Amino acid sequence: MTEPTPPDEARTEEARPGEPAAGGAPAAAPPEPERPRRIGLWGAPTCGKTTFLAALRIAAEEGGHDVRLVGCNRASTEFLADTTRQLKIERRFVPATRELPPNLAWQLHGTQIKKVRPTEGRLRFKRRRPVPYTVMLDMMDAPGGMFSSRPEDRATSAPSSGLRFSSSAGDGDGGSGDGGGGDAEERLVRHLAGCDGLLFLFDPTREREMNDAYAFFQRTVLQISELAGTSGVDHKLPHHLAVCITKFDHPEVYERAVRLGYVTPPASIFGMPRVDETRALEFFQDLYRGTHAHDPVNSLLRGIRSHFGESRTRYFVTSAIGFYRDPLENRFQPEDYLNIAEQSDGGDGLAGEDRFRIRGDVAPINVLEPVMWLAGNVGRP
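The structure corresponding to this sequence follows.
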């Protein structure tokens, strides 16, 4: 007569993952770790993508969201440290980039509260709990005229301040060695097509001068559509899209928002004004209404709605540097809010970003929120 196996011994005979269990069927292997979500930063040349990245680091450290942005290699860490130092400590704008090292890559680590079904216990109802996430960002240089609608501009484009994310952190095909715009354009489009989410930066002050955001957008999105297919839920692109209307601190943007009633008062005397994300799209539509014979936002919005699902698109009004706060009062003052000042050149003929300095502390507005929204929603229909 066979004696029964003691319970303790039975537990030691449980199959390891991948090995046959007692019944002969292989035990289930542990699930593969979820790959980091990829988010591409997208926008016309000189729209402030490098400054946005530095502001993202500052917002991650000081915004109270328990997230951190870290470099994946030495060059990426030094680039992030240098741009953050320029913006926060030296109080000067990050210069327009000309040449960047290849394979710049960062990871944003954080946690989000989600409903999760317990794996143990009798009750299997979903409960809210913090869930860690990682978002991958990578970047390289791009020719400035690369996405013009005119072929002659693309043919003669030279490396300039437009930035883009490369196809991966370690693919080695990166950034500054392109002799022309064709290969660089192809790599950028391939990368954006493979991303889970996209951050599109729209600079209202730049658009007032250049009026080329739609030309840049429409060419790029058509090329992305060649490679990305559709979402499976609708006929639109599968990406989630966060549209960031930048430079909220600029008088052209802030004063129009105040005049049209879009500004939400600060929650405290120390806080900054903001446009609530539930009204950001409405403000975007009103940004140039009645001020331009041809409203540039109309064409851009039609293009966005044509290619991206409404449930997968959200709008944010952002500022990389925030508003000025008097150091003695330590609060926002409507009569003195401008956080930039023009420098006297002292006869040196300062130009570009060097003409201006940041007056006070850098306090980004709505810079981290678009990334967190993308991180929590990419992969959903």
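Confidence is low (pLDDT under 50) at residues 7-15, 156-180.
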